[in-house]
Amino acid sequence: MILNNSEIIFDTVPAHIDRMEIECENKENLDMITKKLELTDNILISIYNPLIELFGIKLDTNININLTFLTVKKVLGKYVTKNKTKFDKMIKEQLMLYNKLTIN
């Protein structure tokens, strides 16, 4: 959705919960859009790491991981220390969506 040269995107990334991003040219447009969407300051989060918060995954910052929708369960699954069922369900749903969108 584009409004006043602003863009609202729903983003899906392997091992992360889906999120909505709002990109605006200026703060005035951002404030107008968040008001129209009735988003509060409690919802507006600039930095959130679901790997740690939801799944207890802590990785060495020097580790080089190539995450894709096809590899995420194998690569990160062994690091999940909480909400394993939720993690597996989310990965399964993301993989199903990925497969649906990539099948010719």
Summed up:
This protein is an alpha+beta fold.
Q: Which labels suit this protein?
A:
4 helices; elongated; 12% strand; alpha+beta; 3-stranded antiparallel beta sheet; single chain; 3 strands; 104 residues
Mind explaining what this structure looks like?
The chain has 104 residues and is an alpha+beta fold. It has one domain (2-102). Helices cover 37% and strands 12% of the residues. It contains four helices and three strands. It has helices at 27-36, 50-53, 72-76, 84-102, and strands spanning 2-3, 6-11, 19-23. The protein has a three-stranded antiparallel β-sheet, with helices on one face. A hairpin with a 2-residue loop joins strand 1 and strand 2. The radius of gyration is 17 Å and the shape is elongated. The two termini are 26 Å apart. The mean pLDDT is 80.
What topology emerges from the helices and strands here?
Blueprint: E1 2-3, E2 6-11, E3 19-23, H1 27-36, H2 50-53, H3 72-76, H4 84-102
Antiparallel strand pairs: 1-2, 2-3
Name the overall outline: elongated
Numbering strands along the chain, what is their spatial order in the largest sheet?
A: 1-2-3
Helix and strand pattern: EEEHHHH
Strand composition percent:
5-15%
**Terminal Cα separation, in Å?**
26 Å
Quaternary arrangement of the chains shown? single chain
Average pLDDT, all residues: 80
Largest sheet: 3 strands, antiparallel
Tally of separate domains: 1
Helix count equals 4
Q: How many beta-strand runs?
A: 3
What is the helical fraction, as a range of percent?
25-40%
Radius of gyration: 17 Å
* Structural class by secondary-structure content: alpha+beta
